[in-house]
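for the writeup, i need someone to sanity check this before i put it in the appendix. the sequnce is what the collaborator sent (i think, or maybe the updated version? ugh). structure was predicted straight from it, no edits. if anything looks off just tell me and ill rerun, i have time this weekend
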Amino acid sequence: MKANDSASQISFDTLRTHLLSYDSHIPDKIQGLEQLRLSTIPETLVQRKKNGKSFLEKTELTSLVEWKLKHGTYRPNLTKLVASNSVKDVRETTKKAFELYEVDKDDYGKSITALNKLKGIGPATSSLLLSCYDPVRVPFFSDELYRYLHWEDAKSKGWDRKINYTIKEYKTLFERVAELRERLEKQSGIGVSAVDIEKAAYVLGKDAPIAEKAKKSHARVPEINLDSNIARIDECRRKGLNGSPTYDTLGFELDKEYIIKHTGGHPRPHGAKTLDRLEPKRKDSEKKAGIMGVAGDDNKIHEQAWDDRVAKDLGSAFHGCFEQRKQALLSTADEWSKERAPKKREMTLFEDIAESVRQSVNFADFQ
């Protein structure tokens, strides 16, 4: 990122330049949703507030979620989950959240938590709903905005920074937006809204060079996805009942008591320990292959055939216990291999002559 675009140095004029190019970054197919999110729904909420009760209808909620998914990362299952909320629940929950915000606008976390009670609504989507209610002060927890405000010129610290979508992260985003708004307003004497900064960050994020985004090459070995819910369940289990809260990929807090009760509180074996446990078996397999004269063969079907062959030669049960067959093979390996292991076949006279010719003639001369 250019220095004059950074959150610490960006000027009002530079911000305005990015805002002017915002519309060109929005695909035509979602312009209707863009209008709903930025104008229609916020204006409707203002009118409802004047009438004494501000809330969102279910259709408005689903439209905002659709905008969020098409504007950023698409998650198909989220739409169905949000659609499962009843009309009554959407109205009552959003009404309560907006009322809490009016009581104390600095304690916006209560409103975010209240909105999280709706199905499929995590901190990021909650911030979107609250931003529609107060687009001047409340920022939408978008990927581009968070990464812009926390941007550092380092690997995994720029436009590829990992986001956990927690309330704690949102609070840092909220504070930095407030600081940037205050600085730009003092500089220009013109009001700057949270939505303005969100738009500028979106433009910068979309215009960032591919190299800066550090997109992974197809040839690169994929890294473990620590964002997966399985990893987060493990993390919750390791923390125990007295540990700090753990959230899933949608931003919902995991139920520690339920997870510990149904998993016994025991974390999965560490990868290194698992490999240590498998190492003796690997060595046994290598030794068997060496005895049979086919070192490097790791075919398990072949290995079972070797076990059966040795077991038969030793007079033990043909389909006996695997452990017994393995021990029988390994304990008598030297004796058995001398008498019964496959011998290397001697070359015939014709093969011997052909090999001598092959080594003495340079076939490249005939090409």
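The longest helix spans residues 167-188. The mean pLDDT is 77.
thx in advance!!
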